[in-house]
Amino acid sequence: MILACHPLIHLAYAYELNNVEVATEALAVSCVDRDFLYKYVDAKQKYKAFSKSTSPVSQSKAILEILDMMRTDKKFDGLFESPGYWNLPILFASREETVLEYFNLFSVGRNSPFLSLSLSGLSIIWVTAARCHSIPYSRT
User: Fold this and answer.
1) For residue 50, pLDDT beyond 80
2) What pTM was computed for the model?
């Protein structure tokens, strides 16, 4: 699984090295490079229809509230051996419908009261995720 931000890293390299070719390549890859998550983001309305949620979809919630609900949901217990982004394909392969129920709770528009909360929440997740789950590696 290639992460969606990988081309952006190369764009930063292009800026740092002042290299037009690397920048062009980074922008081209960002247009065509997709992983399995794009099918959910690109067609959110389509996946709303597939969810058999028992909770009302029209009641939007803040991202941190949704993630906390997922964290305490017993349906996800024992699914992973250790934390990490590499668990995403496992999560969607085994619990797609449950994940889509939570996904459908998240709806943020331009005038949504959750827009600021969601951006703040995503910032918190981004800043703390790497610190909490550092992965040891070797260069051999």
Assistant:
1) no
2) 0.59
Please, how many CA atoms are within 13 Å of residue 87, restricted to the half-sphere of its CB? 11
**Residue with token string 């081309």:** 7
**Does 31 share its domain with 46?**
no
3-state class percentages of the chain: helix first, strand second, coil last, to nearest 5 = 65, 0, 35
Q: Which of 91, 87, 71, 64 is nearest to 135 (CA)?
A: 87
State both tokens at 71.
């964290």
Confidence of residue 73 (pLDDT cuts 50, 70, 90): very high
Number of domains the chain is built from: 2
Structural domain of 94: 38-132
* pLDDT tens digits for range 120-131: 777 777 777 655
Q: What contacts 61, CB < 8 A, 6 or more positions away? A: 69, 105, 106, 114
